[in-house]
Amino acid sequence: MAIKALRNVAKAVNRIFGEPAIRVRFDTDTEEPVSVIFQESYADFDIDGVQVSNRQPTAWIHDTVNIDSRDLLRYGGVDYRISYLEPDGYGLVRLYLELD
Asked: Pfam families, per this entry (predicted)?
């Protein structure tokens, strides 16, 4: 019961916060519109200005898209390769991205 409720929450989150992107399929090179929740890359610095950590860009996508790690994601006119996928078990998949 809880999983079904969380899957509905995932759908609502994607519907509310999702932004348009393009999925380019690796096998056919066809372009498909998708909705993603995108997070830019960033870096953390300590008080002395030394970089202590960084994060690559990520995107959340609904698991019904069945995206493949070999697909390309185009967001904001920029092409990203998918480093790896991380399903959350509740209806969303986190994509770890790198510039193509």
From this structure: Phage_attach (PF05354)
